[in-house]
Amino acid sequence: MSHLPKLTVANYREFKDHSKIEVAVLRILSRQRSVSPIEVFVKMGLLTTADLARWEKGHIPALERVIRCNLTRASRILSLLRFHVHDLNLKPSTTAYQHHGQRLRFSLSGEPNIEEAWSRQFVVVGKRNPFAAPESDGL
């Protein structure tokens, strides 16, 4: 059985999903000043907007139930995302996802490290968004 090498700062760009994450992050940041794991999974086609909406309404007990990849890959994507946004100098910020006062869960286990990794978004530092799409001048 072949095992992937351990994910490190030195090798994270070599992992299969890195380029997809990079593209997703840049597309998201071209329109706004922050990026969340949920948005990246949607952009990568691993989470449908319909499933996301059902989870946000509390109809799905844990987001991991509807992610379209195994949990090992999902965890690796979260780690790759953390390395990538660190290189972009984005600041982590935790967001509480709730529906009618009830905290929404990302994992069936509810393990705090997993929940925190999913609820962390990354914000552009400073007044100017260097990733923003150039404004159209109407031409």
Shape: globular
Q: Provide the domain count.
A: 1
Strand content: 5-15%
In sequence order, what are the helices and strands, one letter per element?
A: HEHHHEEEHE
**How would you name the oligomeric state of the polypeptide chains in this document?**
single chain
Rounded mean pLDDT is 92
Number of helices: 5
Helix content bin: 25-40%
- Would you report the number of β strands? 5
| First-last Cα distance | 57 Å
Description:
- The chain is α+β, with helices and mostly antiparallel strands and 139 residues long.
- It has one domain.
- Helices cover 37% and strands 10% of the residues.
- It is built from 5 helices and 5 strands.
- Strands 1-5-2 form a 3-stranded antiparallel β-sheet. A two-stranded antiparallel ribbon has the order 3-4.
- Helix 1 crosses helix 2 and helix 1 packs across helix 4.
- The longest helix has 17 residues.
- The chain is globular and about 35 Å long.
What are its keywords?
single chain; 139 residues; alpha+beta; two-stranded antiparallel sheet; globular
Blueprint (SSEs and pairs):
Blueprint: H1 18-29, E1 34-35, H2 37-43, H3 49-56, H4 71-87, E2 91-94, E3 98-99, E4 102-103, H5 112-119, E5 120-123
Antiparallel strand pairs: 1-5, 2-5, 3-4
